[in-house]
Write a structure and sequence with these properties.
With 294 residues, this protein is an alpha/beta fold. The protein has a single domain, classed as HUPs (Rossmann fold). Helix content is 31%, strand content 15%. It contains nine helices and twelve strands. The strands form five sheets. Strands 1-2-3 form a three-stranded parallel beta sheet. Helix 7 links the parallel strand 9 and strand 10.
């Protein structure tokens, strides 16, 4: 079976990987601090990677803002290549998965694709997502004559992929050993209609290329790790460990979000707030009024 053993490395290499589609907020600050401290406290490497594979949404001018935010918090990241310079590696992985018969085209709209996803807060729940888009399937790598010019997304056939790898495990520093259950997320999109790669594929390949040994991110991405572990096995990639940290939530219990226009670090920085003092407060779990961890 492919990808069963977990690779262990001595040096901790972590990364903070924001997408430049909006200002960073305190939730990002916490993620950056967790990634930075996990590596630096062990004399390892902490990398800043810009996830700009979705060119239509990326705002290049935000990258300088992100660097300023990190410096304001007192975090010293080394910078690695942004996703926009990694497109060839994504294409090679897609070709391999397609050759192995593990991808199929999907013509559903983004709204239809989103409808079948588990709710953001339920992605780690014990449930199976219906692969409703199988109605789009004509055959591996085939398209209908009248739709040959229409853009398609490419989905991973989860059942076939799991048959290929057999049982898999992964380890979370906080939650402990996990049995991989990629079927909980259904046939995820690996290549959107208008981008070179979706988050699942791009992040997995990038982490391998950057030799990441500890993937730190929020608890809301816990279930995504099941898919990433599967992709590592399918593509013969090294397997890191993971650390999913609690989320910062507001008074209503909602996690901080760019889409909900949560207060930005840039605004705090420009107002004269002490970023290093804020970082220390976040490390100790002391949050600004109205916010809590869970």
């Amino acid at each position: 079976m492919r990808g069963v053993a977990i690779v262990t490395k001595i040096m901790i290499v972590s990364r903070f990987a924001p997408s430049p589609n909006g200002p960073l907020h305190l939730g990002h600050a916490l993620s950056a601090i967790v990634a930075h401290d996990a590596a630096r406290d062990a004399n390892g490497r902490a990398l800043l990677r810009i996830e700009d594979v979705d060119a239509a949404r990326a705002r290049p001018e935000l990258v300088a803002e992100y660097r300023a935010d990190m410096a304001w918090l007192g975090l010293d990241f080394d910078e690695t290549a942004p996703q926009s310079l990694r497109l060839n590696s994504y294409a090679e992985a897609v070709d391999r998965l397609n050759t192995d018969g593990l991808l199929y085209p999907c013509r559903c709209s983004r709204a239809e694709q989103a409808h079948e996803k588990p709710a953001a807060e339920d992605r780690h729940a014990d449930r199976t997502t219906p692969a409703r888009c199988r109605v789009c399937r004509v055959g591996i790598g085939e398209v209908k004559d009248d739709e040959g010019s229409a853009p398609v997304a490419w989905r991973l056939d989860i059942i076939e992929a799991m048959r290929c790898t057999g049982p898999l495990t992964w380890n979370d520093v906080r939650a402990g050993p996990q049995n991989a259950r990629p079927d909980l997320l259904g046939d995820v999109v690996l290549v959107p209609k208008h981008a070179a790669a979706a988050y699942h594929l791009a992040a997995t390949l990038d982490d391998a290329a950057d030799e990441i040994t500890l993937v730190t991110r929020g608890q809301d991405l816990f279930a995504a790790t099941h898919i990433h572990r599967l992709l590592q096995a399918l593509l013969d990639l090294p397997v890191p460990q993971w650390l999913h940290h609690p989320l910062i939530r507001d008074e209503s219990g909602e996690k901080l979000s760019k889409s909900r226009f949560s207060a930005s670090m840039a605004d705090r920085r420009r107002s004269g707030e002490d970023g290093r003092k804020l970082a220390q407060s976040l490390r100790s779990g002391k949050l600004p009024a109205g916010l809590h961890l869970s």
